[in-house]
Input
Amino acid sequence: MTDVDEKFEGLLGERERFRPAASAAWRDIEEWLGLALPADYKKLVDGYGDAILLGHLFVPHPEGADPLLTFMREERRDYYAAFEAVRGTSDVPDNVWGHAIPWAYHDWNGDLCLLFPPLSDQGLSVPSLDEEWMVAVAYRQCPEIQLFPGGVTAFLERILGEGRLPRGWPSGREAWQSVEATRLI
Output
């Protein structure tokens, strides 16, 4: 068991998904994105995806009820349409703006969780260490984008381990539950 696996198990309980997504499904997603996803995110999705975190944060799986690639395509399109007006006032660097990766959707208020790849002096830098990725929350009720450095693991430690939730997210909810109609059980 890796350090990331132990962290996820401490935050979410024992893994419920014992069969990771097919490598072809991950390959299709990464080819569409044009970059490799961080290992910690893929471990989260493989072990706990097609689930709801904190009672409202939907995390899709490549082979789940709402397949991850479909989710990413639709949410990325909607994100660019909805947030173009705040692009100039956000902290998202211009050279990663076009590489937003939707990874979770907050069904309480419509907020969208995004991943942004790491930067180097030359621009986009991939592959990389997981902690160099940034998580962002795109708030739909009051259009704003908040960045959280440290990648998916650090973000989950913040919201689940420390209870420091993004603005407007309800607390006191179950850390992890499976999507009701999932095919992964």
Observations:
- The first strand starts at residue 51 and ends at 53.
- The helical segments are 3-12, 23-33, 39-48, 68-83, 94-97, 151-161.
